[in-house]
């Protein structure tokens, strides 16, 4: 498999504070990769750096294209969908408008219409509520909406920041099932940042563990899951 | 009773102008979270441009359309040149920017067209409307143009992709960028549209207040009052607020002893203060909530 996303020596800064200290990793096309680590390790910063939402140095290449000089919106237009922490719902707009916005950079109107129908199949609850203001949805429904909105881009790569945050365990199971399906059937490469390491490792085929801005372990998800240190530090058993 | 109806109708017709100004104010407030103090001066300058075009012999409606187009481009130019560099500056710097813009435009207009008061034509005439003594054809025309403008804006924001993108950028800028919207251009577009709406307001009110560089001072205050009353986050509220302020202003001027024409303006200020104390989000605005 070829590498779709290549990151070399990534350093990111918030003002004077350095949050990433030379991250190097890559994602192969079609993979589902988990990025694990404790609070403050730099997981969210890594995702934000990929979309140029935080000041960073180093090289980020997506399908051979350097992302460094591109603005956030131009990176998204390459086919990188980012589901941010806290979901980023357009709370004052309707559910359907949120979905339309996901596809706002696309030109194929017929495709957009059929994709909205497809999202309603993936997430039936959104169909029931399509005229409602998105802010009135529950946390779980908003997370579904955020994932659906990201898919409306027809992304090649999807970045998810803590999709399980604040959701009931059953809802998380559903959501992860859908993510697996999207990865397999729609061939979307996925990079997911998670606190819920156990669940993420069940789903993923690759995993990276990050600690204070550095990658400390990498490999197939199965190996990482059975690693003694990881189990103690992140899986808690 | 006749006097009362008359005052209500007069209130609605000046209210139409306040509604336009309030709409322009809300448009920019949505985009950058600040009130544009120079909104009225921009409208005044646009009105002078249309007057100049007519002096050169261009017919009214052509001058009207050209002025709107020029104002739209001018609004975008002002945002790109002046406020984009200030986007991340502290609020006081931005306020200073607005005040600078205010006096630059005001003085330039005085320099180019001097400060004498000029007559401004109306295409609607000023005879009684439909034979009624209550309202003139110009007043009816003002209301008509405003209503058309509102419908056009509603359709734009509700049914076009650019309109949707603008609403998204105003709602959650970061998410808007994450779906590929160039939020910086959406702000510029908001400025352009605000300038164009202001131009329409200026052209409609000029036959009433006459054309001179300070013509919009009072009008803008009423526009602010309308926007605050309706809610700074709601274009619909701004319009309703505009009509309410217009009616309120006229009734108070007529029926409250001692207010009269001279003391009408403080009423706008009193209204702003009252709304901010009693219902800060306005009649139709959403309360701003922040997690702490």
Task: Supply database-style keywords.
heterodimer; A: 237 residues; alpha/beta; six-stranded mixed sheet; B: mainly alpha; ABC transporter involved in vitamin B12 uptake, BtuC; 11 helices; 73% helix
Question: What features would you describe in this structure?
Answer:
With 237 residues, chain A is an alpha/beta fold. Chain A has helices spanning 43-50, 72-76, 95-102, 109-122, 124-128, 139-151, 169-185, 197-203, 221-226, 228-235, and strands at 3-14, 17-28, 32-36, 55-62, 65-66, 80-83, 157-161, 189-194, 206-211, 214-220. In chain A, a hairpin with a 2-residue loop joins strand 4 (55-62) and strand 5. In chain A, helix 3 (95-102) packs parallel to helix 6 (139-151). Chain A is globular and about 45 Å long. The mean pLDDT of chain A is 89. In chain B, 73% of the residues lie in helices and 2% in strands. Chain A binds chain B through residues 51, 53, 71-74, 76-77, 81-82, 84, 88-93, 97, 100-102, 104-105, 149, 153, and chain B through 161, 164-165, 167-168, 171-172, 174-183, 286.
Which helices and strands occur, and which strands form pairs?
The complex is a heterodimer of chains A (237) and B (292).
Chain A: E1 3-14, E2 17-28, E3 32-36, H1 43-50, E4 55-62, E5 65-66, H2 72-76, E6 80-83, H3 95-102, H4 109-122, H5 124-128, H6 139-151, E7 157-161, H7 169-185, E8 189-194, H8 197-203, E9 206-211, E10 214-220, H9 221-226, H10 228-235
Helix pairs in contact in A: 3-6
Chain B: H1 2-32, H2 39-55, H3 60-83, H4 91-113, E1 128-129, E2 132-136, H5 137-159, H6 161-171, H7 173-178, H8 183-209, H9 217-230, H10 235-255, H11 264-278
Antiparallel strand pairs in B: 1-2
Helix pairs in contact in B: 1-5, 1-8, 1-9, 1-10, 2-3, 2-4, 2-8, 3-8, 5-6, 6-8, 9-10, 9-11, 10-11
């Amino acid at each position: 498999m070829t590498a779709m996303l290549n990151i070399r020596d990534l350093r990111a800064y918030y003002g004077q504070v350095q949050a990433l200290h030379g991250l190097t990793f890559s994602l192969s096309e079609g993979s589902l990769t988990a990025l694990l680590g404790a609070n403050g390790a730099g997981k969210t910063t890594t995702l934000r750096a990929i979309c140029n939402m935080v000041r960073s140095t180093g090289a980020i290449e997506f399908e051979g294209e350097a992302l460094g000089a591109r603005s956030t919106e131009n990176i998204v237009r390459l086919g990188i969908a980012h589901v941010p922490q806290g979901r980023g719902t357009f709370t004052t707009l309707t559910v359907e408008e949120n979905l339309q916005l996901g596809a706002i950079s696309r030109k194929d109107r017929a495709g957009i219409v059929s994709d909205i129908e497809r999202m309603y199949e993936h997430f039936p609850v959104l169909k029931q509520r399509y005229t409602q203001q998105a802010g009135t949805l529950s946390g779980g429904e908003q997370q579904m909406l955020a994932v659906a909105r990201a898919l409306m881009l027809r992304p090649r790569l999807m970045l998810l920041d803590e999709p399980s945050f604040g959701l009931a365990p059953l809802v998380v199971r559903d959501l992860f099932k859908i993510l697996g399906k999207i990865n397999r059937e729609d061939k979307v490469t996925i990079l997911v940042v998670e606190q819920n390491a156990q669940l993420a490792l069940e789903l993923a085929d690759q995993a990276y563990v990050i600690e204070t801005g550095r990658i400390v372990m990498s490999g197939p998800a199965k190996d990482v899951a059975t690693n003694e240190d990881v189990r103690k530090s992140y899986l808690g058993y | 009773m006749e006097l009362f109806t008359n005052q209500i109708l007069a209130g609605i017709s000046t209210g139409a102008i306040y509604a336009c100004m309030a709409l322009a104010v809300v448009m920019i407030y949505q985009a950058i979270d600040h009130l544009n103090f120079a909104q009225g001066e921009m409208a005044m300058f646009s009105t002078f441009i249309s007057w100049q075009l007519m002096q050169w012999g261009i017919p009214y409606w052509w001058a009207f359309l050209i002025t709107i187009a020029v104002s739209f481009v001018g609004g975008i130019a002002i945002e790109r040149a002046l406020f984009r560099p200030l986007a991340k500056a502290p609020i006081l710097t931005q306020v200073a920017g607005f005040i600078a813009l205010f006096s630059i435009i005001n003085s330039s207009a005085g320099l180019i067209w001097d400060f004498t008061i000029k007559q401004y034509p109306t295409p609607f005439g000023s005879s009684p409307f439909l034979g009624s003594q209550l309202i003139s054809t110009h007043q009816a025309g003002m209301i008509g143009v405003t209503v058309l403008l509102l419908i056009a804006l509603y359709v734009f924001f509700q049914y076009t992709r650019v309109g949707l993108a603008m609403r998204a950028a105003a709602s959650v800028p970061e998410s808007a960028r994450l779906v590929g919207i160039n939020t910086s251009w959406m702000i510029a577009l908001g400025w352009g549209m605000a300038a164009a709406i202001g131009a329409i307001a200026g052209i409609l009110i000029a036959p009433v207040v006459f054309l001179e560089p300070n013509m919009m001072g009072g009008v803008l205050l009423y526009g602010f009052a309308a926007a605050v009353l309706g809610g700074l986050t709601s274009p619909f509220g701004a319009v309703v607020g505009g009509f309410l302020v217009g009616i309120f202003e006229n009734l108070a001027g007529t029926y409250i002893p001692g207010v009269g024409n001279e003391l009408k303006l403080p009423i706008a200020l009193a209204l702003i203060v009252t709304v901010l104390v009693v219902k800060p989000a306005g009649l139709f605005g959403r309360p701003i909530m922040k997690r702490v």
